[in-house]
Amino acid sequence: MAIIKPQYMDFTGKKFSMLISGSPGTGKTTLALSAPNPLLIDFDKGISRVKAQHRVPTIQATNYEEVLKDLESPEMAEFKTIVIDTGGSLVTFLQDWAMRINPTTNRKKDGGISLQGFGAVKSEFIRFTSQLQYTSNKHVIYVFHTVEEKDRDIVKQRLLCEGAARNIVWQPCDIGCFLQVIGTNRIAGFTPTEEYFAKGSYGVAGERKITTLTESTPNDYITRLFEQMQLSLKAESAIFGEREKEYNEAIETGKELVESINDIESANAFADNLKKIDHALTSEKEIGRMAKKRIKELGYSWNRSLRVWEVNGGEVSDNAVATV
What we know:
The protein is α/β, with parallel strands linked by helices. 37% of the residues lie in helices and 19% in strands. The chain contains 8 helices and 11 strands. The strands form 2 sheets. Strands 1, 2, 3, 4, 5, 6, 7, 8 and 9 form a 9-stranded mixed sheet that branches. It starts with 16 loop residues before the first strand and ends in a 13-residue tail after the last strand.
């Protein structure tokens, strides 16, 4: 596995994972279907509730194995996004799957799923998301209903999802919003509050008004959102590109400085000399690591009381990293 430095990281074409939650009737599925060229996996059998002009190609399976088989179809190549509706129903499908593939371990005597079964469900949920996003190279959107739970005086919205799986569904997601109707507007919150969970990144945060759809309005909100997120990633990458020359110059100067550490005097002078370099990006940390390695080779150790390097044959303390 290669180590990639920040200035060489390229996120062009990154596929995003997203979670949309909210109460029934807020338009979560329609919003999810505004993603780039979507395929809907309809675990809830709810595609009929979506207006005809917003419907997309759909998988309606009777068990989890059928879904996995359908995802191996050559037809999958044409789709850019997989929409899971709902994530809670997927978890129910996974519970049935886990108990059937290993009934001895995953099923309790009363017919319910065991603790080991829940572990299998959680692992498969994460694996399934990774397969879609990284192996199949698709955007992934999970739709979840929410349920109200009172915590003292605060009514909180929690994902409608069985068992401990609700605690891991956020893990693979890049962003997530809570969709609600306020007055005549639909609002998606991407920043967590006391009332609901949410997750923002790549320049997406806060509350955003969702476009009201008409007969002539294209359903493309998330398509445009993903485009904005890609532009945000490109802008961040451009910062590294603009400073790459400065970084390379700093590293070359730093290498010469590290090579000049040949005795205890030059070792103790290093920290001050390091500050004189015009650093860029991660140059200061990288040069510091080079110096630590060099000083280890010389056999010097750090005197914490005097805050100096000493010639005593000891090892360099990890606490001395900040000094170099």
